[in-house]
Design brief:
Elements: E1 3-5, E2 12-14, E3 16-19, H1 30-42, E4 47-49, H2 58-66, E5 76-81, H3 96-110, E6 115-120, H4 129-141, E7 145-151, H5 155-168, E8 173-177, H6 191-198, E9 201-204, H7 235-238, H8 244-252, H9 254-260, H10 264-273, E10 278-283, H11 288-294, H12 304-314
Parallel strand pairs: 3-4, 3-10, 4-5, 5-6, 6-7, 7-8, 8-9, 9-10
Antiparallel strand pairs: 1-2
Length: about 325
């Protein structure tokens, strides 16, 4: 496993991170989830990403139990706040009240005294950004989180947060967590350039396009039994990727992967890590063998000729500008 700095901070994280969206607490049994976490640790993954909203807070609980007994200083635990975690009017958003209450609830569920990274899961248009940034800064000062980040924020939102932090003397954002893969490249136009300039890393989710880049979905065919596309929790998130055009082009990537000595999944994860602004690619798993396969993308260096072949094959389906196409469903 190789490691990278998160943003312009001194924090090192594993370039393959383990995430438990759509798995822990919902899609798989706890024993299987714990086995996947154990496999991740065995393979050298030290970075674990979750969110309070995943599986209605159960995902944090499962991860906390799975990591119980692991030396706290040997892992990095990331979680997020924004989406509703209750029925109350203040059980959502990025108000000071919700951030503070959610942070303490996440700490209890994760069975830890502090978070390595606390992330704003979306931008809150109803709360003053100064209030949000002050609340995050206070959590840093209290030792409840070491660093702060955001997820799926636009470049102008990130820039505004950086300006406020500078003016008010607050802790700066060091990361953004966007969807990013061979097909969905929206961050490349504005978000990544700004972040690279400002010392902010990307921690990318869905590097294999929610499974579409694994090659197991065939054009014109039914989804394999037991796949995400047949699961009630995940089918809505992958459906937009499962067009015959996309799936045909994914199959055309097989020779590229074969020549590189990689599976399609490994090629997809390795591709995201070629971007110097990416600190980590988040993988999920329902079985330990999926973890063991995807970690082999760590340390892979793809030749420029290989990257060009990928672009040539995927060209017509690559999404660079969200104004040109409907966005794939965003995860909560």
């Amino acid at each position: 496993m190789e490691f990278r700095h998160l943003g312009r901070s001194g924090l090192m994280i594993s370039e393959i991170a383990y995430g438990n969206w759509l798995t822990h607490g919902s899609q798989v049994e706890e024993d299987a989830a714990s086995a996947c976490v154990a496999a991740a640790l065995d393979e050298g993954i030290t970075t674990f990403d979750t969110a309070d909203v995943y599986a209605g807070t159960k995902a944090e609980e499962v991860l906390g139990r799975a990591l119980h007994g692991v030396r706290r200083d040997s892992v990095e635990i990331f979680t997020k706040v924004y989406w509703p975690t209750g029925t109350g009017i203040n059980n959502r958003g990025l108000s000071r009240k919700h951030i503070m209450e959610s942070a303490h609830a996440s700490l209890r569920r994760l069975q830890t005294d502090y978070l390595d990274l606390y992330q704003a899961h979306r931008y809150d248009h109803e709360t003053p950004l100064e209030e949000t940034m002050r609340a995050f800064d206070d959590l840093v000062r209290q030792g409840k989180t070491l660093y702060i980040g955001v997820s799926e924020w636009r470049s102008e939102q990130i820039a505004a947060a950086l300006k406020i932090a500078a003016e008010m003397g607050l802790d700066r954002i060091i990361s953004n967590q966007p969807q990013y893969n061979m097909i969905w490249r929206v961050i490349e136009s504005e978000v990544a350039p700004l972040c690279e300039q400002e010392g902010i890393s990307q921690i990318v989710w869905s590097p294999i396009a929610q499974g579409a880049l694994t090659g197991k979905y065939l054009p014109g065919g039914a989804p394999p039994a037991g796949s995400r596309a047949t699961d009630a929790h995940g089918s809505g998130f992958i459906s937009d990727y499962l067009t015959d055009d996309i799936l045909q082009r994914v199959q055309e990537l097989r020779p590229v992967a074969d020549e590189a000595g990689l599976t399609l999944s490994q090629l997809a994860v390795a591709w995201t890590l070629q971007n110097p602004n990416v600190a980590a690619a988040i993988i999920g798993a329902t079985r330990p063998e999926q973890v063991r396969e995807n970690v082999k993308a760590s340390g892979v260096r793809l030749d420029p000729a290989v990257l060009q072949r990928i672009d040539d094959i995927l060209g017509p389906v690559i999404v660079r500008d969200p104004a040109q196409t409907a966005s794939p469903p965003a995860r909560p």
